[in-house]
Amino acid sequence: MELQVALDCRDLSEALAVMEEIYPYVDIAELGTPLMYNEGTRAVREMKKAFPDVKVLADMKLLDGGYDIAKIAYEEGADIVTVAGVTNDSVIARAVEAAREFGKECFVDLISVDDIVQRAAEVDALGADCIGVHTSHDTIAGGNQAPTKDLSRIKAVIKRARTSISGGIKAEFIDDIVSFGPDVVIVGSGIMLAEDKRGTAKMIYEAIHG
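The line above is the sequence of 3-hexulose-6-phosphate synthase; the predicted structure tokens follow.
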């Protein structure tokens, strides 16, 4: 099980500062979609240069240009690129192709997918390396909003891909979330907005790694 920290900020300097604070209590540094929009793939290059032993995920949520755009991120050093599960099969298949070419990983995010069970099975067959359930930031109202039931549903049909869980994950709920057995636990605001980011990351990291 791995801890992925969603660096949901706009500036690369802020993302690097957060990583300095929480390192080494992070397995995957997620360059959030706002950061990718604002800084471009140079953010991938600079993050990988600063933390070469941490996996870097470019959260692009690709809807088109699966091979060509994923290739750009992989060439800059990304270990993982995300594709939106709502896109068509050919985009996912081409992104997987790019991942294989570079020896990297393709992650498919099921956010906004209506039938996550059917789509998880389809995406698994297309060769995705990790498939994630995700509670939208815009719908989180407080408390434990992690989509644990959705995680259980897709785990029942996935045959080869790893699974991840994201959305509303906080330190106080981590033991319950871990009990559902995701391969990757993604934490954004639960760490980014914490007063003690390092202490919170350490607590979650240790719970995940047992």
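Note on the example: The mean pLDDT is 95. The chain has one domain: 2-209.
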